[in-house]
Design a protein that fits this description.
Helix content is about 30%, strand content about 25%. By secondary structure, it is α/β, with parallel strands linked by helices. The chain binds xanthosine-5'-monophosphate.
Length: about 550
């Protein structure tokens, strides 16, 4: 059966993945495609509706991202957002001009409640009136535009305005065309998710059958059909993606799956054992689990190496060597599984228009030496939050499912300068204390207030600086290392701010680290933002 879907056409704006995620939150599956995608291909995908995203340019300029007027004749509802709305107007005979001033930030807006976008159940063109949600008509929205729609295209009417923008939303219900000048996908537009819901569930009439329990069930069937009696090999890092992929594959094909888990000695405290407890013998999954304890091998390769890029390279190359040796022992396999997720697909240029091209450091190069016939990527269609939900459906422990991002080179890039077993132990112990204290304070806050505190970081960890300094311990002079604590708030990890952790949490962490971790006499808090700093230290 064909999966019901919305197509998000990407014009290169910054919120494009966010638009797709919001649609998925309405339990509607969607995919992102570049605006350059052939119109016939889009038609063949038989979408229930189309969303045109924002973009960085002016639609009337030479070389701007364009679309064919024929797009608007496909016969399914289309919603243009920001640039998408302007382009729709421009292409269909209206006028878009540069405003005197940029309209930016949270803006008061008045919505016309008779529009189906904003709650008009009786509006023409609505496929499922029961799904239309009513909203506040005097509300806020997030604006970010220089150009504005100065004249509507024929057939359209304005259904929202702000003090400076006469067309903050528009519609031509007879053709099923809608436009919104602001950004309903961002949280600063409080009624925004309802608007997208009204579009995909009410106007397009999507049934909302995209749910993670059915995804897991359907994937298990699809994997069984595809793999049959074949053998599958997966490099399990213990991160969220590869763990969920392992859980899903194991449920589908059990012993036909072999997971190789390389413990490079640069994992967080007890992490290797935690991964083994879930996937190893006696754990909750049925599979072949191979743990390679390669700590010493890594430490000897890293001895004396201080240059960050060289360290990263050694760790990456050594991973390939170790994996290669294991793969040779296993022999030919039918499938090599990878934990690729949807943002990886989009960011590597296969989906939308995103400028960021990310290489997949942790798995890069593997296919060259593993003897396999095909790649299998069971999470390829999922966003990170969906991967987590699928993980919970599979019964993976919450600690694993909600794990913080952890770099492939591990603690190797959180130890400045040379990596040694002794330094790894120091940073592991300090980091475990830090995570415990932050976790405890956050949990207390959550149980009292029902939500995470404002200061809750998106990633936090301890790093070992290469600096030793003089201190006192009792009557003794010490000459020990300084630990740096990092905690950042970020949306996409491309930019980040230091999180404002409560002072008492920092104090408790410092006290415990200097008392419990030998070799540390100083604890520093890193307040740098990114840029110019990075999240990691090397
Ligand atoms: P940076 O340090 O680049 O980190 O600001 C941004 C995010 O990426 C993670 N990171 C990595 N992840 N392999 C990974 O899988 C790597 O080599 C790597 N380097 C950084 C980092 O933890 C943060 O979440």
């Amino acid at each position: 059966m064909e999966r019901e879907k919305i197509i998000v056409i990407d014009f290169g704006g910054q919120y494009n993945q966010l638009v797709a995620r919001r649609v998925r939150e309405c339990n509607v599956y969607c995919e992102i495609y570049s605006y350059k995608t052939d119109l016939d291909k889009i038609k063949q995908m038989n979408p229930s509706g189309i969303i045109l995203t924002g973009g960085p340019s002016s639609c009337y300029e030479e070389g701007a991202a364009k679309c064919s007027p024929k797009l608007f004749e496909i016969g399914v509802p289309i919603l243009g957002l920001c640039y998408g709305a302007q382009l729709m107007t421009h292409v269909l005979g209206g006028k878009v001009e540069r405003a005197k001033d940029r309209e930016y930030g949270k803006t008061e807006i008045t919505l016309d409640a008779s529009s189906a976008l904003f709650g008009g159940k009786n509006a023409q063109g609505v496929k499922n009136a029961g799904e239309i949600k009513q909203m506040q008509t005097d509300t806020l929205c997030w604006m970010s535009h220089f150009d504005y729609i100065s004249q509507l295209a024929p057939g359209f009417r304005s259904v929202a305005h702000t003090s400076s923008t006469p067309v903050a939303a528009m519609e031509d219900v007879s053709r099923g065309l809608y436009g919104i000048q602001f950004h309903p996908e961002v949280l600063h537009t409080p009624e925004g998710s309802k608007m997208l819901y009204n579009f995909v569930r009410g106007i397009c009439g999507c049934a909302g059958d995209w749910r993670m329990d059915t995804f897991v069930e359907d994937s298990i069937k699809a994997i069984r059909d595809k793999v049959g009696n074949g053998k599958v090999l997966l490099a399990l890092s213990g991160g969220v993606d590869s763990s969920v992929a392992a859980g899903l594959l194991s449920r589908a094909i059990g012993q036909h799956l072999t997971c190789v888990f390389v413990d490079h000695g640069l994992l967080r405290k007890n992490e290797g054992d935690e991964v083994e407890a879930v996937f190893g013998k006696g754990g909750q999954f049925d599979l072949n689990f191979i743990r390679v304890n390669a700590q010493e091998r890594y430490y000897s390769k890293l001895a004396g190496v201080t240059e960050p890029e060289r360290k990263r390279k050694i760790i990456g190359e050594e991973f390939i060597r170790v994996f290669e040796e294991e793969a040779k022992k296993i022999g030919a396999v039918d499938f090599l599984a990878q934990g690729t997720i949807y943002p990886d697909v989009v960011e590597s240029g296969l989906g939308g228009e995103s400028a960021v091209i990310k290489s997949h450091h942790n798995v890069g190069g593997l296919p060259d030496f593993v003897d396999f016939k095909e790649i299998i990527e069971p999470l390829r269609d999922l966003f990170k939050d969906e991967v987590r939900k699928a993980g919970l459906e599979l019964g993976l422990p919450e600690a694993l499912v909600f794990r913080q991002p952890f770099p492939g080179p591990g603690l190797g890039i959180r130890i400045i300068g040379e990596v040694t077993g002794e330094k790894v132990k120091i940073v592991q112990d300090a980091d475990a204390i830090y995570r415990e204290e932050v976790g405890k304070a956050a949990a207390e806050w959550k149980s009292a207030h029902g939500e995470n505190p404002d200061w809750m970081p998106d990633q936090y960890f301890a790093a070992l600086t290469n600096m030793r300094s003089v201190g006192v311990m009792g009557d003794e002079r010490t000459y020990d290392y300084a630990i740096a604590l990092r905690a950042v708030k970020t949306v996409d990890f491309m930019t980040a701010e230091a999180a404002q952790l409560p002072w008492d949490v920092l104090q408790r962490t410092m006290n415990r680290i200097v008392n419990e971790v030998r070799g540390v006499n100083r604890v520093l808090y890193d307040v740098s933002s990114k840029p110019p700093g990075t999240v990691e230290f090397e």
